[in-house]
Amino acid sequence: MSQPLLELDDLAVRFATREGPVTALHGLSCTLGEGEILGLVGESGSGKTQAALAILGLLAANGRASGQARFRGRDLIALPPAELQRLRGDRIAMVFQDPMTALNPYLRIGAQMQLALRRHRRVSARAARDACAEMLAAVQVTDPGRRLDMYPHELSGGMRQRVMIATALLCKPDLLIADEPTTALDVTVQAGILRLLAQLRREHGTAILFITHDLGIVAGLCDSMLVLRQGRCVEQGPVAEVLAGPRTDYARELLAAVPRLDQPGPPPVSMAGSAAGPVTGSVTGPVAAAIAGPGRGTGIDTGTGTGTGTGTDPATGADAPVLSARGVSVTFTLPRPHPFAPAPRLQAVVDANLDVRRGETLGIVGESGSGKSTLARAVLRLIPPTAGRVVLLGRSLQGLGAADLRAQRRHAQLVFQDPFAALDPRLTIRDIVAEPLSVFEPSLGRDAVTERVRQALEDVGLDPAAMGRYPHQFSGGQCQRVGIARALVLEPALLVCDEPVSALDVTVQAQVVRLLARVQRERGLAMLFIAHDLAVVRALCHRVLVMYLGRTMESGDAGAIYREPRHPYTRALLQAVPAVDAGAARSWESATAALELPSPLAPPSGCVYRTRCPLATRRCADEVPAPREIAGRLVACHHADDAGLAA
Amino acid sequence: MLGFIVRRVLDAIPTLLVLVTVAFFMIRLAPGGPFDAEKRLPPQVEQNLRAAYHLDEPLPLQFVRYVGNLARGDFGPSFQYRDRTVTELIAIGFPVSFRIGGLALLVALLAGLSLGTVAALRQNGAADHAAMAVAMAGISVPTFVVAPLLVLLFAVTLGWLPAGGLGSGPANLVLPVLTLALPQVAYIARLTRGSLIEVLRSPFIRTARAQGLPLHTILRYHALKPALVPVLSYLGPAAAGLITGSVVVEQIFGLPGLGRYFVTGALNRDYTLVMGIVIFYGALIILCNLVVDLLYGWLDPRAVQR
Amino acid sequence: MSTTPPKTPAATAATTGPRGAAEGGLWADAFGVLRRNRAAMVAAATLALLAVLVVVVPAVSPNAFDRPDWDHISAPPALEGGRLFGTDSLGRDLLTRTFYGGRMSLLVGLVATLVSLVLGITWGAVAGYAGGRVDRVMMRIVDILYALPFMFLVILLMVLFGRNILLIFVAIGAINWLDMARIVRGQTLGLKEREFVEAARAMGVPPGAIIRRHIVPNLLGVVAVYVTLTIPQVILVESFLSFLGLGVQEPMTSWGALVNEGAQELETAPWSLVFPAAFLAVTLLCFNFLGDGLRDALDPRDRSAG
Ligand code: SF4
After folding, report:
1. Are C243 and C257 in contact (CB under 8 A)?
2. Which residue in A1, A135, A275, C50 has the fewest CB atoms around it within 10 Å?
3. pLDDT tens digits for range A393-413
4. How many whole angstroms separate alpha carbon B141 and alpha carbon B149?
5. Where is average pLDDT lowest: A208-212, B34-38, C53-57, C288-292?
6. Which residues of chain B are within 8 Å of residue A107 when distances are taken between CB atoms?
């Protein structure tokens, strides 16, 4: 007979809080066979992590688990703590979400691994060290012997997560519980980790309980899946079945909310301000957009409501970009490591060019450390650029005094990543949204201000009655709407969004993306959209600019680039994104090996991407590739033509 | 590492210079002089005395002379104890203060760390509340209240320990050390408890638990070092506290330590003695902070990079 | 100083209650939490009562605080004549004197804390917000002052310039503002990096308005906690000076001075130590409890778990 490896039977989790008991998980039942991978899918607050912690007996002190969790027939919930402790890390291991905080910063990697191993295996220190090094090598950590003597902060995020996985695997567990193990990582790094987990199951038959919010990963990695919502299981079954035909509304909503690479982009910019009907099919912006195509639409009707004199600046013709940046560079000087060393210089952005027109969205894409946020802040002069020229609405921002610069800020507003951090916790929603008005239209009376705030809140789909509340009384999605309302209340010409949805749940993310798309279209805004998520960028942007280590790799029309990326880095990025379709190829399986990102303090010579590029040649090391126009976009690569067409 | 030490020592020079300047001019500008206390001296004698000690020179000149001597390690002669140099007096007084302060620090660390750890592990339990009540009392009841009470109990009523003085045996040290250590025990216990609770809540402890490590292993290998960091940063100020606290304790228990010399010196306008002790303590505090910073680098691997 | 690890959802996931059920800002929430802390509330009430008593009692007492009564020298506590706390060696009523001394101690605590508050917030906020070279220079000055043995300088000050109450305020305030400046600067640096401050900058809000609207209000929590913990420290320092005979001058008195006198008659008239010492200890205890409670109430970590 085949007994399942793990059987959850009516597993529930309850917390005692000051406000009374709170149920985080209501009766969860499912089974996981030997060597299977089960995806536990849910948004924040769905109870997915609590389920995992309950299985391992790691709930917080005020939490209680009930029901059964049978591991090889033994009920873990009822097991005496000492016995459960022996199982943990031996037969069942866990990998946590954030590799930055899940490793002890005070202990060397080797020490942490050996503690875990020698808890369960009687081996000598020598043998333990060897075993650890071996395991590190098995998870493709380069130079494992040396890594053992390092501290976690000396490793990159991806390396740390590999160390976490290696530690979990030391005792060859039967079951690995992975709680969002790739959420904190870049896509290319994520692809490597996913490949590793798939290989682990293939080679060792390790069963995996994979907790995630990302349906794309589930589609590619898991055998079966289970959707949790607010502590209840709403749907479960084989992955292919659930994705092909979700039976519940929530699962359908969740699936629909996932941004896709293959979706149509935003409607073309041609008639800014006109209410473009719902665009279906694969209409994408004109390729010509990449190279400042002439004859862009005539519609400048709405935006003129901005009102002040600058709006009618003679330089601002219909075609003149709202924002134009040429040769922008940002170099940071870091503190010296010791008094006699030269101060290290970090080139965060090198020679960036961009134009954003009315009614157009430009996406800036890149992984962490690519300099995308720095670039956005530099063009707004929130960080002083070390070189380059920025023109906003026909006025150069260079050489403006502090007061003049502040006056220009009304035309360019910013939306931030963390919706909570971006709102002053001590101000009411009304005061937060009213703040720009108090700066730029101080003559407005109290009631007039309230009226403008009311309008702004309604515009972003919030109930104006909540004006008197404080940010912490709202959800993340609502706070982000407040942030958008604040940015729009002055009716700026340019909206800069810095990862505005990456901190939000998938369904909320979809709503906010729709909101942004709508206001952008209705108001004919020029928008600069910074994101690491290529699929979200696809949904919103007419043009994209791909950055790596501060340099622009490829820029041009979004549709064209997504269809046919020309730069090897763009291609690697696109390949690494997990696709939702059950039938789709597991693109990340073939994604380029995720090698270590070089230190931005000492970028590689020539082309900065060459250390990870499969096409790199001698020339790439010697010569910095100049951006060239290929197939209607700019590509900075020596071998882009020949690189071409193979998938 | 060596570069770090060198830099810190260089950093200390301006600090000491400021200290010397402030102390020097403060004393000189104060009303009264070193020879006021004695029976009226004939003007001629006083004149000679002042000349002998260069007190008749203009202030800036005196200052330069003093700093010059200081640079050669010469604190000058004491005005009050005429036959002794300040250096000799410090050499007599400091060992007494150091023995009490050092022992108190040791006691404070041992007791504070254990109390704090117990409290953190039994968070909100009876042991926690008891330990924290003791700690709260230790902070709130001043040394100079505790000291007489201890004397009353152990010396007067029970007669177990001497009430003061610097007898031959270690018995004389018990009460002063206890008195001095008590508030520090309290601070360290509270700090330890707070930081240990915080550390035990951190994600990497959960990782360790997920690896099946038992509590004592987690405490010893994973939690101890990070929990010690805030305690360590407190040790610099704590050392200073022990130094200043010793003034009271020396007063109450009649111990011939530096604190006593300082107070009597200040009352008698013994310029050089007071200056010497102030500078000596300043240097001591700088040294304590340097040691703490070095320990810090050893405890926290991330600190080394800075 | 030490950097707190970033908060992870896991740390707060333990209790996911409904967010912010109550209307009102963070302060209102904090007050709600504080209200549930019984120790802190009792402490606050005790302090309020004490504040009233030190004002009222010396004013209405039949026995003036400085009038010797040669018929009742060192009389034990008695109902007769309202001498509930007994008298001291000069026959002065200790009840009146204790509350009168309390006036002095509390006044010193408040005024000196105010001095350090004003100096510290200004210095710290300016250094923190200005950043760069201004910050480096300003903090270097603080570092230098930090390394001075301040307690000794204060003793020196008191000895040399007489026991001026004003001087006590200034001197003690001058010790404590360093801590305040460091804390405020650290907070300001953190706040400056927060996105809502960047948002304000991006919106074109001028620097002055940013400090006023966004920085200072967000500093107040920490400052409030620090103030409640500074007041007892200051009271302690004053008592310590008075104990050494360097504080307030006869016939005025403070708790420290009273404890000093009491300690000398410990064996013959224990009440002269017990009452002032008890009041001193209770006051310090209350401030410390209140400070602890305030810190817990304002701690964002506990908040988000609430
Ligand atoms: S220039 Fe060379 S290394 Fe750089 S992307 Fe092109 S082929 Fe790769």
Report:
1. yes
2. A1
3. 888 887 788 888 888 888 888
4. 11
5. B34-38
6. 221-222, 225
Least CB–CB distance from C194: residue in A17, A412, A421 = A421
Question: B170 to chain C, minimum CA–CA distance in Å?
Answer: 25
Write down the pLDDT at residue B40. Answer: 63
Q: Tell me the DSSP string of C119-141.
A: HHHHHHHHHHHH-HHHHHHHHHH
Report which of residues C108 and B82 the model is more confident about: C108
C-alpha dist (Å) from residue A173 to A59, B210, C181 = 21, 12, 53
A381 neighbors A405 (Cβ within 8 angstroms): yes
pLDDT band at A303 (very low <50, low <70, confident <90, very high): very low
Residue of B nearest to A57 (CA): B210
Nearest to A422 by CA among A248, A506, A413: A413
Total Cβ atoms within 10 A of residue A605: 12
For residues A426, A427, A433, A439, the Cα torsion angle rounded to the nearest 10 degrees is -100
Identify the H or E element spanning B281: helix B271-299
- B143: closest chain C residue by CA: C240
Does A153 contact chain C (CB < 8 Å)? no
List the structure tokens of A544: 């994209």
User: How many Cβ atoms sit within 10 Å of the Cβ of residue B53?
Assistant: 17
Question: Do A610 and A616 contact (CB within 8 A), yes or no?
Answer: yes
The two tokens of residue A248 are 């519940």
Q: pTM to 2 decimals?
A: 0.76
Q: What is the CA radius of gyration of chain A?
A: 26
Neighbours of chain A (3+ CB pairs under 8 A): B, C
The residue among A152, A30, A55 whose CA lies nearest residue A100 is A152
Helix, strand, coil percent values for chain B (each to nearest 5): 80, 0, 20
Instruction: Encode pLDDT of C205-227 as tens digits.
Output: 888 888 888 888 888 777 887 88
Q: Which atom of ligand 1 is nearest to the CA of A568?
A: 5
Residues 6+ apart with CB under 8 A from A13: A23, A24, A25, A47, A50, A51, A53, A54, A59, A63, A64, A65, A66, A231
Confidence of residue B39 (pLDDT cuts 50, 70, 90): low
d(C-alpha A574, C-alpha A445), whole Å: 51
Q: Mean pLDDT lowest for which of A275-289, A489-503, A619-633? A: A275-289
Tokens (6 digits) for B18: 């400021």
Q: Parallel, antiparallel, or unpaired: how do β-strands A224-229 and A232-238 relate?
A: antiparallel
Structure confidence at residue C79 (pLDDT): 65
| C-alpha A513, offset from chain centre | 14
* CA of residue A643 to ligand 1 center, whole Å: 9
- Mean pLDDT of the region A345-370: 87
Cβ atoms A495, A488 nearer than 8 A? yes
Lowest mean pLDDT among A22-31, B108-117, B242-251: B242-251
Mean pLDDT of all residues belonging to chain C: 74
The answer, yes or no, to whether the previous bond of A80 is cis (omega within 30 of 0) is no
| Rounded distance from Cα A86 to ligand 1 centre (Å) | 51
Rounded to whole angstroms, the Cα distance separating C145 from B15 reads 7
pLDDT value at residue A482: 92
Apex A546 CA angle, A543 and A549, nearest 5: 155
d(CA A385, CA A389): 9
Is the pLDDT at A457 greater than 80? The verdict is: yes
- What pLDDT is attached to residue C23? 44
What residue type is B296 in one-letter code? Y
Q: Letter for the amino acid at A590? A: S
What distance in Å separates the CA atoms of residue B150 and residue B157, rounded to the nearest whole number? 10
Which runs of consecutive H residues, i.e. helices, occur in B30-168?
43-52, 59-71, 86-121, 126-140, 143-150
